[in-house]
Amino acid sequence: MATKPATASGPYRVPKRQNGWRAFTLAVAMHAVLFFFLWGGIRWQNTEPVAVEAEVWDMTTQAAAPPPEPAPEPEPQPEPTPTPPPVEAPPPPEKIAPPQPDPEIALQKKKKEKEEKERKLAEEKRLQKLEDEKEKKKLAEEKKKQEELRLAEEKKEADKKKKLDEEKAKKLAEKKEADKLAKNREAEMRRITGAVGNGSTGSTGTAAKSTGSRVDGGYLAALRAKVQSNVAYGGAKQDIEAVFRVSQMPTGEIISVRKIKSSGNPSYDAAVENAINKSSPLPKKKDGTVERDLDLVFNMKDLP
Q1: Residue 163's domain spans which residues?
Q2: 150 and 120 share a domain?
Q3: 248 burial class (0-12, 13-18, 19+ CB within 10 angstroms)?
Q4: In a domain, 249, yes or no
Q5: 25 occurs within a structural domain
Q6: Across residues 188-196, what is the average pLDDT?
Q7: pTM of the predicted protein model
Q8: Is 19 helix (H, G, I), strand (E, B) or coil?
């Protein structure tokens, strides 16, 4: 079978067979003849012959020999299977050129990529701006907090300094007042020491003076007796004296005790001051009144 070569107009093609129908007819006829012979042979073997029996008596013949068996008819050989025609290989697929990209699509893609890049850049700038503003706000708050702490510390220091100055001024004023009072008392004591010492108790070493012009002798004796009973001093007695200024309420409750003159013996001074504080409330006058301020002189020789 001849093949048609490929041309420039297209791939090669397999030409149609010219004698296809004739070959097909011959094949059908051969199969029909073969079927007929097979059918006839099978039918002939299955048909039994009609036998006619006749008895012939021959005295000389003992017995007739059996007829020989017919030879088996050879089986027909099967017709060989016709060889199928060779299958021709399919033609190779036609090479298809890849489609060329559309220039418009490429431009649109490039434009989208550029827009996406610009969008990402703008988003990064926006986030960076927010971060910078957040950091700036944080720094401003920290600076404000530090300023508030500094102002609070300065105010605290100023208040502390003001308080110290006020306390210092108060102490200085109190000292000046105490010195002034002490000088006045010393002058007054020198003027009336003799008169106070001649009280009804007959004591020569202990004196008391009030801010008034007259002091009841019995009242002074009661004051001295109560204070001296509370003095706890175990040292040797000496001819020394200490002067204390005592302020009291109308009820006799002691408001303050201040040492005006030291005896020179700190232990004795402390013992007398403690005794005065323990004696609160102090005794009253016969009329139930008290001297608000008293300068009391305590001589060590007068201790019991």
Answers
A1: 107-197
A2: yes
A3: buried
A4: yes
A5: no
A6: 51
A7: 0.33
A8: coil
Residue that is last in its domain, among 165, 197, 229: 197
| Residue 210 covered by a domain | yes
Closest CA to 244 of 285, 299, 193: 299
Distance CA 289, CA 19 (A): 169
- Residue finishing a domain among 197, 213, 246: 197
Strands 293-299 and 241-248: antiparallel
Amino acid in the structure at residue 175: K
Q: What is the pLDDT of residues 29-69, one digit of tens each?
A: 888 888 888 877 666 555 555 555 656 555 555 555 566 67
Whether residues 154 and 211 share a domain: the answer is no
pLDDT of residue 13: 60
Length of the chain: 304
pLDDT digits (tens, 9 = 90+) for 146-182: 999 999 999 999 999 999 999 889 888 878 877 776 6
Cβ pair 88, 16 in contact under 8 A: no
Q: How far apart are CA 25 and CA 23, in angstroms?
A: 5
Same domain, residue pair 193 and 207? no
Cβ(286)–Cβ(228) below 8 Å: no
Total domain count, the chain: 2
Question: First-to-last CA distance in the chain?
Answer: 168
295, 243 Cβ separation under 8 angstroms:
yes
Whether 74 is in a domain gets the answer no
